[in-house]
Amino acid sequence: MRRDAIASLFLVLSSAPAFSQGPPLFGQPAPAFAVGGTPKQVLAGDLDRDGNPDLLGVVAGVGLSVRLGDGAGGFGAPTATDGVGASALGDFDGDGVLDVAFAAPDSTSASFRLGTGTGTFGAPVPLGGPFLLLSEVAAGDIDGDGDADVVASTFFLQAQILAWRNDAGSLVAAAGAPTNAAGTFLRLADLDEDGSQDAILITTGPAPALRTFLATGGGALALAFDLPFGLGANPAALGRGDVDGDGHCDAVVTVVTVSGPSGVEAVYKGDGVGQLSLVIPTIPMGVVLRSVDVADVDGDGVVDLVGARTFHGSGVLSALLGAGGGAFGAPIDSDVGVSPLPFALTDLDGNGHLDVLVGNTGSASVSVLQSQVADPTGISSFGTGTPGCSGTQGITATAPAAIGSQEFFVVTTGAPADSLGLLLFADAANVPGSDFFGIGVLAHLDFPTLTLLFPFDMRSDPHGYATGHVPVVADPALAGLVLFAQSWWFWESCPPSTFGLSASRGLTIVHQP
Q: What is the phi-psi region of residue 63: left when phi exceeds 0, alpha when psi lies from -120 to 50, beta otherwise?
């Protein structure tokens, strides 16, 4: 971003007030769980394969603190694994249990630990070092073979982006790339839509920049895009997702400047081939998110900006609801702890709505914000399905199934990231569920008795939040018609069943006039 681009951002920002507006999105007061130190990172995943997302915090002086989830927003007693710094979850050995890759607390080496399936981890397996110095670690499929690979960034002297490809359960060093500056924020997403995840990196120093590194095969990453922010800019947070609804992954960056307003969220539009271009979003003046990501937290089918900040001396999680086309409304704030920063999006109770786990760096705790968004009229979920590695896959819809509606979308949470799934509609349900095909997947559509079966595509984002477009036929005679839906997913990494399939809960859809 050039200096004149930054100036333009400040000039065109909406003058809407920066105070909280709208109905509450999350339950208040938010329960908080002590983590024994400053949370540097918050993660969520189903470590013990019971269908309930668990809470993981990378905590200064503690290591990795784990609390097992109860499926209702509560968590058990903590267990700690020491010697763990910046972390990422993935099933590296293909046994269906999440493992953890991590930097050492001093950031000079990297290792991974295999999950035991009980919420604990085995002995560390070194990945290499010494490095100067590891800043962030991410896990995803960068070579297109379906296995979980590892990517890390360094932020001192000969800064580089590092990669380890998964070779039959072993993590093998792959060709990284120099970054020419300190890497501070790292995210993975399939920017060029070739089936392999790519890297988005913010570098800081005298010439801060936003860079993308595309997967080129064999786990290698190559610089594809390099856009300087300009003098006086201090990038403070990075998020990614499809901000404008065109099907391509975009990047969102919080930029703090040395003069003028204290910060701005800038959107970089993706083109589907790995390039990004600055677009100027409409965001209320004065809203400075210390951390940021892109997600549909109000369940209307339009993505929102979510981030932590301190407002009038209080720690809050802010949601700026999307209006489409890069426009966002005034923040809806939910109180959390002191100095909130890291957070994780997940569906704690499997109802199809996103919840948030927020790390409070000033109060040594993690706040749990559970969604208060209700299902639309005529929409309700049932059963358990067959969970994936993120836990039970919730399912809901973004709106009532109104006759003639072209804006009816079905949503699934907890899907594999950046993946294509199958959404099935039928006229017969099996509420308790049955493994009709003998493949270890609980079906909530009654295949032996159904007379109608309609397939639709679903596509998940980098967070595993999936949507499927289902236009409703404009026939008044269909008012009151009851159909049932379920989504099915294939996991090449972290297989949840014999053939690597998972299935969401079931969904009842009553068509509305």
A: left
